[in-house]
Each structure stands twice: as C-alpha cells, then as structure tokens.
Amino acid sequence: MKKDVVMVILxxxxxxxxxxxxxxxxxxxxxxxxxFDFAIPKEFPPQITSCVIVTSSGxxxxxxxxxLPVPHRVVVQEKPTGMAGAVVAASHEIAGxxxxxxxxxxxxxxxxxxxxxxxxxxxxxGVLTAWKSKSYFPGGYIVFREDRPIGIRExxxxxxxxxxxxxxxxxYIENADLLLSAIAxxxxxxxxxxxxxxxxxMAEHRFTLIPHEGRFVSLKYPWHILDVMSYVLAHGLQPxxxxxxxxxxxxxxxxxxxxxxxxxxxxxxxxxxxxxxxDNTVIGNNNIIRDSYIxxxxxxxxxxxxTRSYVGDQCWLHANYIGDSVLEGNVSMGSGAILANLRLxxxxxxxxxxxxxxxxxxxxxxxxIARDVRIGGNASIMPxxxxxxxxxxxxxxxxxxxxxxxSFCVASRGYTVTTNTKKxxxxxxxYKAKL
Amino acid sequence: MKKDVVMVILxxxxxxxxxxxxxxxxxxxxxxxxxFDFAIPKEFPPQITSCVIVTSSGxxxxxxxxxLPVPHRVVVQEKPTGMAGAVVAASHEIAGxxxxxxxxxxxxxxxxxxxxxxxxxxxxxGVLTAWKSKSYFPGGYIVFREDRPIGIRExxxxxxxxxxxxxxxxxYIENADLLLSAIAxxxxxxxxxxxxxxxxxMAEHRFTLIPHEGRFVSLKYPWHILDVMSYVLAHGLQPxxxxxxxxxxxxxxxxxxxxxxxxxxxxxxxxxxxxxxxDNTVIGNNNIIRDSYIxxxxxxxxxxxxTRSYVGDQCWLHANYIGDSVLEGNVSMGSGAILANLRLxxxxxxxxxxxxxxxxxxxxxxxxIARDVRIGGNASIMPxxxxxxxxxxxxxxxxxxxxxxxSFCVASRGYTVTTNTKKxxxxxxxYKAKL
Amino acid sequence: MKKDVVMVILxxxxxxxxxxxxxxxxxxxxxxxxxFDFAIPKEFPPQITSCVIVTSSGxxxxxxxxxLPVPHRVVVQEKPTGMAGAVVAASHEIAGxxxxxxxxxxxxxxxxxxxxxxxxxxxxxGVLTAWKSKSYFPGGYIVFREDRPIGIRExxxxxxxxxxxxxxxxxYIENADLLLSAIAxxxxxxxxxxxxxxxxxMAEHRFTLIPHEGRFVSLKYPWHILDVMSYVLAHGLQPxxxxxxxxxxxxxxxxxxxxxxxxxxxxxxxxxxxxxxxDNTVIGNNNIIRDSYIxxxxxxxxxxxxTRSYVGDQCWLHANYIGDSVLEGNVSMGSGAILANLRLxxxxxxxxxxxxxxxxxxxxxxxxIARDVRIGGNASIMPxxxxxxxxxxxxxxxxxxxxxxxSFCVASRGYTVTTNTKKxxxxxxxYKAKL
Lengths: 435, 435, 435
Description:
The structure is a homotrimer. Chain A is an alpha/beta fold. Chain A has 2 domains: 5-218, Spore Coat Polysaccharide Biosynthesis Protein SpsA, Chain A (Alpha-Beta Complex); 224-409, Hexapeptide repeat proteins (UDP N-Acetylglucosamine Acyltransferase, domain 1, 3 Solenoid), CATH 2.160.10. In chain A, strand 4, helix 2 (60-64) and strand 5 form a beta-alpha-beta unit. In chain A, helix 3 packs across helix 7 and helix 6 crosses helix 7 (193-204). The radius of gyration of chain A is 25 Å and the shape is globular. Chains A and C meet through strand 21 and strand 37 of A and strand 37 and strand 38 of C. Strand 37 of chain A pairs antiparallel with strand 38 of chain C, so a sheet runs across the interface.
C-alpha cells in the first residue's frame, strides 16, 4: 500500500455555469456549513498525509484557515483554465508524489476514498471512479479493452457510447509526474486537456475502475443547489433545537427538523422535515414548510408555502409559494408572489446556460434567485427562470425569461381607465356570510 | 285507472348548450351516481310496467345495462332532432299504448309521477305539469279556456303571456297514436314540433294540468351543474365516512359531510356541509370547503377555498379560490389562481351560448372548465367564463372571454426591463417582525 | 388668571388635501366616535366657560347637537378661506373676549390646554405651542429675540430656519379684538393671513411659547388617518367584548382587543391588539389582524391579513393583504387582491396631493381607498395610491397611479390564444402528494 499520498483538492471553479448566484459555489452555505465542508470528508484514509487546495486568489485566505485532518497548503490557479490547469498549478506540491484528486464541487460517499486507495495496488498506475448510466448523459465515457479501462471518450453522443460507465470525480494517480508530463504534451485547445492526458496515461499503464453505486451529488448548475440541499438534509441534518426557541400554539412538527437559536414559529404552521431553520428566523402564522433549508434572520410571514426549496439568510417572504426554488439570500417577495415549479404540460423544465437552452432533467423546478433581489406582490416567476443579483421585479409581472443582474423589471401599464357608469348602493349586504 | 303504461325516457340530448363540458350530461357524475340516476326515480308507480329509453347511439350500451324497476328497452335516435324526433324513434315501442314521457335532464319531486297518473282519469287524454312563474321566462306558456289547458304558446314575450304557467318536463298521454299522428302532420320547421303537436291534441281533447310547487332542477346549460349539485347535496347525500380515512389535528367538520375511502384531510381545514369528498382525495392544510362536491383522486393542496362548486375527479389545486364554479375533471390550477364569482357591479352574470350572450340569472357564478385543463399560477378567470377541453391558461392571465377546446392562452409579455439604479443593502432588518 | 375664556374650535376645513375620502374629516369615524370627539377634550380647564364652533354649512346641524363641557354656539364659515376667515366668522362671538383657538384636525395631549392657560399671565398677550423639529419640516418656524417669540416665518426652507421650533395647533389670545384687527389689516393674498396677523401681534406684544414634547397627531392628508388610528388605538381603546359574540375554536387574541356586538370570529384566526372590531362584523377563518381598526358590518373572509390599517364599515374582503392602508367604507376586494405597502427599494413613499408629488415620510404605506369601491381578484394596488369614490378596479390590474372618483379601470386584454399542441393524459398522478 502506497504511503504518504497527497490529496489535491480542486476548488478553483469559475462558476460561469453557476450564475446567477454570486456566492462562490465552494463556500455556498448549507445547514451551518459550506459546500466545501460537505464535499471533503471529516476523516481521511491513513495513506493521505498531506493536502493541497487549488483555488482562486479570492478564496486563498479562506482556504488557508480551513481545518482538515492533515496539514494543507493552498496554491492559487490564476486563470480558471480547468482541471489540467489546476493540477499544473499544484505541480510544486505534487512532483514525484502519489496523489488523490478530489473535486470540491462533488459530494460522494465518504467511503469512496478508502475504496479507491485499497484498489491502488503496486501494479496499478491509477484508479478511476465511474457511475453506470441508464440513458445517455453528456459526460466522459470509459473505453474498455477486455474489462480494463484504457481511455475516456468525451461526449460521444447517444448510441455511440463505448460503454455504460461515465467517469466522474476524483482519481488516484501513482506518479503525478506522468500526469503532469501528459498534460504538458497535450495539444488540445479545448477544455478537455485533463481527460486527454488521463486517456493517454490509461492507454500505456494499468488503471482500475471502481463503479460507484447510485448517483453522486455535484454542484455545477444553479439548480444543483437543490440536489445538494436534499443530500445534506438527508445525510447531514442533526434534528434538535437551539436556545430561546419560541413555538406558539398549534404548530405541527413532523420528521427531522433543526430549529436554530431564537427562532420563533407562529400559530397553525406545519413543518415537515427534513427541514433546517437558521438562527433568529421567524416562521409566520399558517405556513407550510417541507423538505427545505431556511437560513438565518429570515421572516417567512403569514401564509407562506415553502416546498423543497433553499431559502438563504435574510429573506423576507409574505404569503408566497416557493416551490423547488433557490433564494440565495436577502431576497424579499411581496404578498401573493409565486415561484411556479411545474409547466402546464408537466414536461421537463429548461433553463438557459449562457446562450444554450439546457434541459434540467427536472419536471419540478422553480426560480433561481441571486442575492439582493426584490419581487413585488402577485408577481409570478415561471419555472426555471433565473434572476440576477440586485434586481427588482415589479408587482404583477409574469416573468418568463432570465433577468440579468442589476435589472429593473416592471409590468407594462396594462390597464385602461374610463368613466364608471354603475352605482354601488351603500347597503350591499344582500349576501349573507357563511363561514 | 289505466294499466300497463309505458315510460318513455328521453335521454338523447345533443348537448350543444352544455358546452364546454365533454361528458354526456345524462352520465355526468354526481356523488357516486350519474345525472340519470338522480333524474329517474328508484321506484315507479305500479301503472308503469315497461320502459323505453331513447338515446344516442354512443350511449346505447350504457343504457342497456342500467337497472330500472321495470323491464326496459333502448332505442336510438339517430339525429338529435329534439323531443318530437325522440318520440317518433320510440314509435314501435309505444304504438297503441298509454305513455308517460320523462326527460332525463330534469330532476323533479319523485311523487310527481304518481300525482300525474292519479290525474289520468278515464275522461282525460293527457296530463301536463307546469310551474307558476313570477317573472317572464322564455318557455312555453299554457293557454287556458275556463280553467282548462287548451294549448301551449312558445316564448310569447314579456307582457304577452297567456297565463303564469310554464309547461315543463314530462306528460301523460292516454293514446300515443294520437300524439304520433299529430307529430307526423306538423308542418313546423322549427324545434317546437313537439309542442305544436301537443297543442293540437289539447285543442281537441281534454287535458289536465298539475301545478308543480317550487322550481324543478334541469340540466340544460353548463351552470345548471351547480343547481343539480345543490339539489343532490341537499337530497341525496348520505353523511358518513369510508375506510382508511385519515383526519389530522384541528380539522373542523360541520353539517352533513361524506368522506370517501382513503381520503386524507390535513391540519387546520374546515369543511362545512353539505360536502361530498370522493375516494383517495387529499384535502390539504388550511383549506375551507363549503357546499361542494369534490370527486375522487383530487388534491386540493395548501390554502384552497372551495365554495358552492363542483370539482370533478383528478383535479389538482393549490391555494386557489373556486367559487360557484365547475371543474369537469383532471383540471389543475397553479398557486394563487382564482375563479372569480361576482361582478364588480354585483349584477347578473352573462355567459355565451353559441353566439348569444345569455343571462344566467345568477349574481354568483364562476368559471365552467372542461376536463383536461391546466391553469397557471395567479391567473384570474372572470365570472361566467367557459374553458374548453385540453386547454392551457398561462400564469397571470386575466381571462375575460370563453376559450375554445385545445387552446393555448398565455399572458402577453407585459413588462419592461431597464437598469436598476437602486442598491439594496445587505443589512435590511430595519423592520421588526410582529406576528 | 383670566376668567370666562371663549374656546374657538375651528372645524371648517375644506378637505381638498384629504381626498380621496368623501367623509368630512372632522366626522371621520374612529372606534365608536369621530375625529372631533378625540380632538376636543372631555373636560375643559375651568377658565373656559363658553365655546364657539366654526364649521361649514353642511356640518352646522351636526355640531349644534354635539355635547361639550360648556355651552356652545355654532357659526358657519361660508367659504373655506382658512384660519383667518374662520376667526373672522366667529367675530360676533369673540369680540372683546379672551380666546383659546383649537383646531379640530389635531389631537394633542389633553393637558396642553391647562398648561397654556396657566401661562396666560396678566403681562402676556398670547400663548403659543410649538414642537422641536429634528429635521426640516415645511411649517411655520418661531422667530426668537432673547428667548422671546416675536414672530413666525412660514416655510423658510431647509438651513434657513430661524429656530428649531415649529408652531402648531391652538393659541391663547388675551384680546381677540387685536387679532381681528390684525387680520383685517393684513394685505396678504396667500393662505397665511392668520400667521401674518399673529406675527404682527407678536412683534408688538409679549407672547409666551410652550414647547410640546413629542409629536401631536393631525389629520390633514389621507394617510394621517393611520396616525390618528394608531393614536386612538393606543389611547382611546377600551378592551372588551359586546353581546352575542361568537368566537370559534383556535382563535388567538393577544393584546388589547375590543369586539363589538354580534361579532363572529372563525377558526384559526389570530388577532394582535390594539384592534377594534365593530358590531356585526365577521372575521373569517385563518385571518391575521394586527394593530387595526375594523368597522361595523364587515366581512374579512377567508385568509385575510390586515396590518396597521383602517377598514371602515361594510367592507367585504377575501384572501387579501391590507397593509398600512385605509378603506373608507363599503369597499370590496376580490380573492388575492393586495394593497402593497413597501416599495421595492424600501424608500419613502410618495403620494400625489393635487398636482404635487408629496413625500409622505413613510416607508410603509399602502392604498387610500374612498367609499363605494370594488377591486377585482388578484389586483395589486401600489404603495401610496389613492382611489376615488364609486370606482371599479378590474381583476389583475397593477394600479400604479391615483384613480379619480367614478372610474372604471380594467386590465388591458393581455393575452394571446393559439392552438394547444400538447396533450394532457387522463392519468396524471405521477406526483405524490406530501402534505
């Protein structure tokens, strides 16, 4: 068994695909932690004795102060040139070493690292992980020769896949120098230099594949926040309640629920776990909250319905429907505003990524709203719509397309005024209330 | 007393006036039965010993299998040419017989048949029923000579009525042959051949009139679903609950309520009978449901208000107001969508029937929505509007006119986007929540 | 100490600035009283032995029948020419007398009158009250010479104020004749004749100033209804309940609440005082009502949220948000209609007064709606908007500007209809309800 393996944590993602959110995805808060905390296991296999984190210059200081089971150094990848560039940025730290590459966007089974290192027998140059896809997925497919993985084919197209296995996440590489030189000799201009280099190593050396049961969770697109949230609510939530919690009459709590300090929950509200509620948050009267994360210092107001959604800190709601949606933080919504989460035809929901209409593979998906946004009363945001930071959406708007940051979006003056020819009598109580 | 009377049930209505609904009106479901079940009494007077049902070819099989107190045959009326055509279609079954004609669209007091046959004394050729109208109604008015009915005048116009009695529903005719030959000799081209034939019989033979107290219930126009529903909820509802009913905390049930098998009713909901809830339906949290029929396999969602409405099977609601409305079945409504049921001027509500604007004589009437319709969040459907089958109404639409079947109706893009010049501070908690 | 002082109550305001409301502001109802009842103390200082009320001809009869601690007469000010004209109208009643002038629009600490009369020592010609402003306010500022008030400067502009003291409310004048002749000799054409006359008296005679701690409440602009309401709820509300009150299960009452005769409050509703509810009013299910006045014969319907608002008699609501708003009376709102009370930028809310855009100095202010108005479902009324009497606002309208009386305002037909190419299957229950 190899000793003194270096863990290389890649945490330098540019986040173009992560728009509209402005928080770095590695630092995106979940429960009382960050994405990074959930992605990196609390304990490392004993073979790993040091660690290097590759990140952007903006996050250098943050990562210098994180606590890991082994000593770590931070290196900065100046330009977001992908995985190959990240490994090159770490070359001083890994030269001549055995390495495990871990991607900080992914949350996988913590036991996977141990399994991978067990598979790193002396005759093996590298260990890969892959998941078995049932239908075509635009990823890198493993090429096999007699059960041995000998290469990766990027996005081969449906019906042209060399196998059912899609490569993902980290790798073990016995000799980082070989990887570095394979990267150096790549002539690719595209963003798959790393996969090309890995393929060339696989063609010449023995690699082992570890199939991963079930799907892992990855934070690439903004709607992936909901996948990560579901994962951490299912696996990372510690039910309980903090200090000075005030729960009023006829509040129903079911399933695992965490309630932070100073939280107040008002009458006739139902909370169905898993649900996390951050410190100082006020859950108003007659709410229903299911399978959701609510940050700190929020007010949900009267009559709000939050279902399978991420509501960041300092959001202020009021009689809203928040379904399968993400509010990054400091988002307010006026009374009656809704985030619709289902198409009329109940089909897959698409969302723009750059100029491309992307199938999110979800039939239920609401809005993705960056921080510092205000939405007026009775506005309706259509499924899959993204709203950029510091934007205002006026009352009554039916928003059917993405809105960039710093937008001011108001309903056109859609009414006419003429003279009213009808008279309303003062005594109108011809209708009797039956309640 | 005449014996061996044949009951002729007219159940061949074309249903043009019944649009947008696609279900045959005779088979329209109410409670766990159909309109036909409520229209035809469970017991017949002993004089009636056989029955013939006149229907369209599409319903022949259905009616062959209905159970009646006496043996019955089914005859098909090929073209929907009205009552006269229906009687002619049954001529083989009624030749030389005494008959009672019953219209399957109408629900009248079950004792009316007995009264009518009692009045069928030997010196009487026919017995009619009529109701006394207080204001002008566009129907057939009875013409009297010295207290004896001697004819019918169709839609004479306000102020020109020969009496206050409006002919309706079924008749007893001593000798069907006379009626058949009067129909055969009519030269009318309009749809009142039957009334003309009846008038000519009345002019020559002795007829008796039975005044009917109170208004009967008839299913001609789509809003009549609400009248029939009220009638059957008042007279046909058996309060009780089925198996595996789950009623959560703080649910209030008042008045007569029937709850089907596997129904779940969630917290803080109030149900005020008469209300019928079909099997497997889920009534969500914080609902109010009054004087309504809810079919099977529905979900009313959070915060819905259903008042005096018919909600057919497989409807899926969410924070809606459904007032005095009809949802035929498999209708979904997004959060905040409403079916308005009262004009701003609180006047009579009109609805289109063909090309004619028809006064429904109701001040409270919502929408009439055919099966397989989807309505987006925060849409508002105006009083008296009808929506055809397989249509989509987009979020935020204010629908002020009928929509034909297979329509796709979306809000115009009614907003403008400019640059937001305001900044929202991260620390916005200047407002203190008081809940 | 002067004896036999005449109190002059000025109650002749024209109310142009008080639009859209049609009720005379002196008679505007609060709790079971009027503005006048709250403005005029229940007990007078003993020096005051008679009273004259100056009012418009329309209110003469009303004021002749009010009950005051001392005998009173009513004089009519024919034209609404301001304070000077009002004093002149009363000249027969005050000639040769000492007077205290009280403005019926203002509610001040009842002890202020006593303090003012105590300060009316023999060497003093007049006593004024003023409040100390922290920031510029467009009122009349006191000019001092060596601590003695010697004049009033109207609206000097920010940075040009002669002192921090803003003159308000009533005055004591030792000799009304001097005031009357100062008014008579004024050559001002503007509406500050009274202040000019007062200034000229102050320049020649000794005046005393009484600083008033805290802000008094004045009813000049329509949004001042909310200030007066807050004042009377805080100081004039007697908690309790009338006869035949019916409060259903799970109703939560907190703080001081008055509930009138025959009031019914339905399930799952929360009321947080101070709140006043008038006779015969029905508070529906699942409401929240805070810091508000609700008049008599109202129905709040299902699911309504009323916060810091004035709801006059005979209003009919349904699933509405009424925030920081005034409904004069006989106003109806359809399901989902909202009165928004906060700008998206959370800035000061402006409202038109005549042709001028007026800063209300409020960040929370909803709509001001005159009597006999109907608002359709899902309409959204923007902060600070005023709606004139006998107007209709259609469903779905986003009303962003004032509407004059007798208006008929409807949403433009903002939708398109094409053919629906999608099919909805009858069996759509792929989603499982989790509630």
